Amino acid sequence: MDILWWLSYLALGGFVGLMAGLLGVGGGGILVPILTFLFVLQGVAIEHLAHLALGTAMAAIVPSASASLWSHHRHGAVRWQVVRFITPGILVGTFLATFIAAKLPTRGLAIFFACFMVLMSLQMLANLKPKPTRGLPGPIGITGAGLGIGGISALVAIGGGSLTVPFLTWCNVKLQHAIGTSAAVGLPIALAGALGYIINGLGTDNLPAQAWGYVYLPALLLMAPCSILTAPIGARLAHRLPVGILKRVFAFMLMGLAMQMLYTVFTA
């Protein structure tokens, strides 16, 4: 692989880790559009662009999700009883959604991804937060919520934070615990999503030689270490920089990346 691609994946991993540490967001919103663009330049077949980007992004979330889970657990911010009931739904929803994604065309996936990212960006700009109006549902209700969260997360390659935190906050879970519990949920989402995309891509024609199913290994192996290294830097900068302003800038960037992804797949 050309050194230019090595440097591109290293830089992308570093940037995603920095944004995750600084703003607590990032992941698929950044990775999927940029990976799609890089894969086009590398000559990946158009029918596999979105699938390969989503699968690689899900796999790249695994190490950062593991580190985040451990960090929040050490601070006592994880509601493990909620994790216990939501995880089965998360695993099933995420895994099954990868089979749905595998049947969808690249352009259909790109449209869904772009619409979701635009909605998430608008929510960030408006700073909309659900009011705590009810308590947590029972085990079946929590598992059902996990099913939906996991399904959507697999289709847009996110760790679930943009869905899990609002759900838990709405259910009167303190914000600190909602964020910590969401971090714990991010690991099963990433694992189930990565496994599902690997399985669905095995034996598929016209994938790059170094792809393992719908996960492109060179990108994964180069991005993951850099994101782990830069995430703590972002976390330290969060205490020194105007995070509110940066979040608004980031929201516009996510919308721009979503539009760029649509342009990429419709003109490739």
Explain what the structure shows:
This is Probable membrane transporter protein. Strands 1-2 form a two-stranded antiparallel sheet. Strand 1 and strand 2 form a beta hairpin. Helix 2 (28-41) packs parallel to helix 10 (243-267) and helix 7 (161-170) packs antiparallel against helix 8. It has one domain (3-267). 77% of the residues lie in helices and 1% in strands. The chain starts with a helix and ends with a helix. The chain has helices at 3-23, 28-41, 49-74, 80-103, 106-126, 139-156, 161-170, 175-201, 217-237, 243-267, and strands at residues 211-212, 215-216.
Please name the defining characteristics of this protein.
single chain, two-stranded antiparallel sheet, mainly alpha, 268 residues
Quick synopsis:
Keywords: Cell membrane, Membrane, Transmembrane, Transmembrane helix. This protein is mainly α. It has helices spanning 3-23, 28-41, 49-74, 80-103, 106-126, 139-156, 161-170, 175-201, 217-237, 243-267, and strands at 211-212, 215-216.
Task: Tally the structural domains.
Answer: 1
What best-fitting shape do the alpha-carbon axes yield?
globular
Largest sheet: 2 strands, antiparallel
Oligomer: single chain
Helix/strand-derived category reads mainly alpha
List the helices and strands and how they pair.
Layout: H1 3-23, H2 28-41, H3 49-74, H4 80-103, H5 106-126, H6 139-156, H7 161-170, H8 175-201, E1 211-212, E2 215-216, H9 217-237, H10 243-267
Antiparallel strand pairs: 1-2
Transmembrane segments: 6-39, 51-70, 82-102, 109-126, 146-171, 178-199, 211-233, 245-266
Main location: membrane
InterPro entries: TM_pro_TauE-like
